[in-house]
UniProtKB/TrEMBL annotation:
Protein's recorded name: Membrane protein involved in aromatic hydrocarbon degradation
Signal peptide start-end: 1-27
Gene Ontology cellular component annotations, sorted alphabetically: cell outer membrane
Family designation: Belongs to the OmpP1/FadL family.
Lineage: Bacteria, Pseudomonadati, Pseudomonadota, Alphaproteobacteria, Rhodobacterales
Length: 423
């Protein structure tokens, strides 16, 4: 079997999966994914304190794969966010109700776990961490004096995609499992319809409609799981901030000449085996959007777009509580359910640009399961739903605030499925 699944073949599979991960997508905690793979999604993204589920579990906590064994996981999520805005009495933003187009996105994931002779394991994974996408049409805008689109620049929107490629090392020493995962991150971004902001940009030629641009960086995930008893375990996982290369084509849009780093985050949790067949999970996660100025800065009048300290999307840090349960009904069937509640990153004062990235949902309900078709093959599935949330606030134009009101809203539905093979 080792010969069949050679390093070259695994690299080929990872490359194919990584190519698919270029699809744009929203995620659920701002633009950070609720979970990676159908097992995590089925239990509300919880599970930082559990081990032994599958190779993808290392993406939430690198320590989790220490007891997985040789395993391959392939998965796909079909994600459907519905997002838009309503504007009334505005001087700049197009009035009326408008919905973003492009509502279905495929998001694949891949992971392979292989034990080492030394007692540790290596996990290779490729997965989309999140992203944001809006595509508003070239509709009439009475505020433009003959122009059109949300911001008087024609069809408008942004498209951010993030891909993570990692190689993790994990091992179990007594009651302690630990893991560390160097991660390479790749971002792709493009924006259109923002030319009217050129009057307040430090570089109007690098602001909008410049096609796709790429950004690269390296970060680190690390985690541990400690078994307090045979029934209770504690987990802790952290991700460093990724200092990414700049989006040079959008140096006049993002703060500090195109900076768009990936925020740090930390997750802590506990897992309790309420019975031999039932596991309960509780996680707390904090995402530090405040560490990325192009995301967290509010409207700034003292610096033009793209300059150090300039305007960003105005997002706050996000706190997430995740509850999950896994019930092994029998040797073939396991059921999962979950709920996650997150704070809203977008405030009422930042809705003018926030309509480009309305990641405002706060409640997430999930259901999933796994079916063991044989001793080696299992099939996983999950569905997730985030009810509609609205945030309203005043319009802010390149010339300053107006009496206009804007309401952004979003809801989400996702369906995940996957296949696992143990060797």
């Amino acid at each position: 079997m080792r010969r069949k699944w050679s390093a070259r073949r695994l690299a080929g599979v990872a490359a194919v999966m990584a190519a698919g991960l270029g699809a744009p997508a929203h995620a659920t905690e701002g633009y950070v994914a609720l979970g990676f793979g159908p097992i995590q999604r089925g239990q509300g993204g919880a599970g930082v304190a559990t081990t032994g589920f599958d190779a993808m579990s290392g993406t939430i906590n690198p320590a989790a794969t220490a007891t997985v064994g040789r395993s391959l996981s392939l998965g796909m999520e079909v994600f459907s966010p519905s997002r838009g805005y309503t504007a009334d009495g505005t001087f700049f933003v197009a009035p009326g109700s408008h919905r973003s187009n492009a509502n279905y996105f495929p998001i694949p994931n891949f992971a392979y776990n292989t034990p080492l002779a030394s007692g540790g394991v290596l996990t290779f994974s490729a997965y989309g961490n999140g992203g944001m996408n809006t595509t508003y049409g070239n509709f009439a805008n009475a505020n433009c004096g003959g122009g059109s689109g949300v911001y008087c620049g024609g069809a408008a929107g942004v498209d951010l995609t993030q891909l993570f490629l990692s190689v993790a090392y994990a091992r179990k020493d007594g009651a302690l499992s630990w893991g560390i995962a160097p991660v390479v991150a790749v971002q792709a971004f493009k924006a259109k319809g923002l030319a009217a902001f050129g009057a307040i940009s430090s570089d109007p030629t690098s602001l909008s409609n410049n096609g796709l641009d790429w950004s690269y960086g390296i970060g680190l995930r690390a985690g541990l799981i400690y078994e307090l008893s045979s029934a209770v375990s504690f987990g802790l996982s952290a991700q460093s901030k990724f200092n990414m290369s700049k989006f040079s084509k959008y140096a006049g849009l993002f703060e500090n000449g195109g900076d768009f780093d990936i925020p740090a985050q930390v997750t802590a949790g506990v897992a309790v085996k309420a019975s031999p067949d039932v596991t309960l999970m509780l996680d707390y996660q904090r995402i530090f959007y405040s560490g990325v100025k192009s995301v967290s800065n509010g409207f700034v009048t003292t610096a033009p777009l793209g300059a150090p300290g300039a305007t960003g999307f105005g997002w706050d840090d996000v706190d997430v509580i995740k509850l999950g349960v896994a019930w092994q009904q029998n040797d073939q069937m396991t059921w999962r359910a979950g709920y996650a509640h997150s704070s809203n990153p977008l405030g009422s004062e930042d809705v003018t640009l926030g309509l480009l990235a309305p990641g405002v949902v706060t409640n997430h309900f999930t259901l999933g399961g796994s079916y063991a078709a044989s001793e080696r093959d299992s099939f996983d599935f999950a569905v997730e739903y985030a009810p509609n949330v609205k945030v309203s606030g005043g319009e802010v134009t390149p010339g300053g605030p107006t009496p206009g009101r804007i309401t952004v809203d979003m809801d989400q539905v996702g369906v995940s499925f996957g296949w696992r093979r143990t060797f």
